Amino acid sequence: SSNYRIAVIPGDGIGVEVMPEGLRALDAACKRFGIGLEYEYIEWASCAYYARHGQMMPDDWKAQLERCDAILFGAVGWPATVPDHISLWGSLLKFRREFDQYVNLRPARLFDGVPSPLAGRRAGDIDFWIVRENTEGEYSSVGGVMFEGTEREFVVQESIFTRHGSERVLKFAFDLAQRRARKTLTVATKSNGIAISMPWWDNCATRIAAQYPDVAWDKQHIDILCARFVLSPDRFDVVVATNLFGDILSDLGPACTGTIGLAPSANLDPERRFPSLFEPVHGSAPDIAGKNVANPIAMIWSAAMMLDFLGHGAGAERAAHDAILAAIEATLKQGPHTADLGGKASTTEIGRAIAERI
Amino acid sequence: SSNYRIAVIPGDGIGVEVMPEGLRALDAACKRFGIGLEYEYIEWASCAYYARHGQMMPDDWKAQLERCDAILFGAVGWPATVPDHISLWGSLLKFRREFDQYVNLRPARLFDGVPSPLAGRRAGDIDFWIVRENTEGEYSSVGGVMFEGTEREFVVQESIFTRHGSERVLKFAFDLAQRRARKTLTVATKSNGIAISMPWWDNCATRIAAQYPDVAWDKQHIDILCARFVLSPDRFDVVVATNLFGDILSDLGPACTGTIGLAPSANLDPERRFPSLFEPVHGSAPDIAGKNVANPIAMIWSAAMMLDFLGHGAGAERAAHDAILAAIEATLKQGPHTADLGGKASTTEIGRAIAERI
Ligand SMILES: CC(C)[C@H](C(=O)O)[C@@H](O)C(=O)O
Ligand SMILES: CC(C)[C@H](C(=O)O)[C@@H](O)C(=O)O
């Protein structure tokens, strides 16, 4: 199998603590399946770096990362010293845009051993993917304030959706749905309230759907869709959404499966022109940082998704991915567990238990 | 007590079936507490009217409704014949805007006898209000498409938040929180992603909060806030949000309490320059329309909220509101139940049971 160069960015808070466990799992899996990884450790894209340099990243960040095949990312943000909009727009959101990682892929899955907040659901009942547009739409810094400081003050915020950007993420989602057993896609919308962009988005979906006659699809408004994540999460297979709606759904989905601390994410450039980025959904969690109690599973699962993407879903990389996932499942079922799952194990202990099982 | 003139608009689908039960409960409560109501029955603001007239409402709709003290509304929408954006923007959304009903108030409450999709929660555990801005923000028809039909096509959608519009709904929410036992307010935001309007909204909140030193408040990003509705709904007291976020939260909240079919809503002009509008959160539900199986409780509860608002939260109107609520609670606990709650009773039977208990 090939050799990959991985940029390793721990970032802030618990990012620093879970990253070593992600690497431990990677090392174990790559050793077993004969995959060569080379790590490039990066201390920037962190608030600690900002404190010393007044910016989140060095000027040549792009050149440095472009040399790598993928980016493994911990978490960024330390609001006590750097406002979120500076730390995020100065690192993570820049990566997503400038590396055109236009798909943010996140699973919602119910596991044995993980208490779900929903009543009466069992492992296997819930197993779907959220495909989020990751570069444009509602996340925009276009707009401004008028009549500032007066009674008449108002702010305009533009959401901007390109046909190119919308069609490609819809295609990715239809492709994914087509490869799955149920072949079912839900398109999140709000065309009954947001009068210009969302009917336009619905039209994009209808146009792309015509190319996938074997995929059963429908549109659901974001309000009732959120309700259905709680009421009938077993019905979903693949859900595709704009940037904001995808952000909401990909926190809500894992919350419904009790896995908000376990959920991984892949920020993908499916065309592989740029490195893709893999990160836990949980943030830097300042409240529990520095205590070695954070659950490293989201980080480890993200590392597994990275291998799978590097291997195009096949080969030794796929086998390594599956071995990591199996080790995660076994650990969730049999323990040890960190505090968030009612256990007493440390971050390191979970990382070791998973690596051993791999 | 005074006499009120009520515009009664059944609308479409199950709106037509639940409305008589709303009136039955009102009649019972008003008789008991000596309140005089006069109904003005209105057949427009329905897709049936649209089919005959090519518009949702007559030209003098505003004058007709302005003569009334409040509007009791069933549901609007029949997508098989009229697209949602026509039926909604041609009626309900017009009322909200042109009558400046800038607060949309919706409860999330757990009842005895209503199975919650959340595990281990009991009646009384969850009891909070969602205050939604109801006239501006993300629901806008400002924007447009450029380079249509080409590769470069994109759409711009503007969200527009006025200082006037934001401050007044925030004030309403702080006022409400101040009157409650826990005096706690959560402000929904997404200032880490939506870079212009949401930091501006946060500033509005901070400014208004300074006038309410006795209210404990914080900001929460909409993604994690949705997750917390599922994970720790007992923590919320009053939640305030922009139009879109409020729309999402006020479907999700009732979903978490198992009451999506029971939830009422009040579209309020708190300054009482225009009639306020009271409607169930559920829509016209074409799939179950015409079968006399819809649960009328959301309609009945909406009617109770109307009385309470007409009476400024006091007097005979308050007593009538409380009597209706008590009858709803007793019926939920002891039955009969409609199919959505696992029973066999018809819409009419539930309406009669509640009216008798009043
Ligand atoms: C029907 C739709 C336009 C409406 C809204 O989004 O406001 C509904 O979902 C509601 O919440 O009252
Ligand atoms: C931190 C924030 C900007 C980010 C987002 O909203 O995209 C996060 O919530 C996520 O989902 O990755």
From TrEMBL, chains A, B:
InterPro entries: ICDH/IPMDH, IsoCit/isopropylmalate_DH_CS, IsoPropMal-DH-like_dom, TTC_DH. Gene3D superfamilies: Isopropylmalate Dehydrogenase. It catalyses: (R)-malate + NAD(+) = pyruvate + CO2 + NADH. SUPFAM superfamilies: Isocitrate/Isopropylmalate dehydrogenase-like. The keyword Manganese applies. The keyword Cell wall biogenesis/degradation does not apply. One of its GO terms (molecular function) is D-malate dehydrogenase (decarboxylating) (NAD+) activity. It is an enzyme of class 1 (oxidoreductase). Its cofactor is Mn(2+); Mg(2+). Pfam families: Iso_dh (PF00180). Residues 5-354 form the Isopropylmalate dehydrogenase-like domain. Keywords: Manganese, Metal-binding, NAD, Oxidoreductase. SMART domains: Iso_dh. Its EC number is 1.1.1.83. Belongs to the isocitrate and isopropylmalate dehydrogenases family. This is D-malate dehydrogenase (decarboxylating).
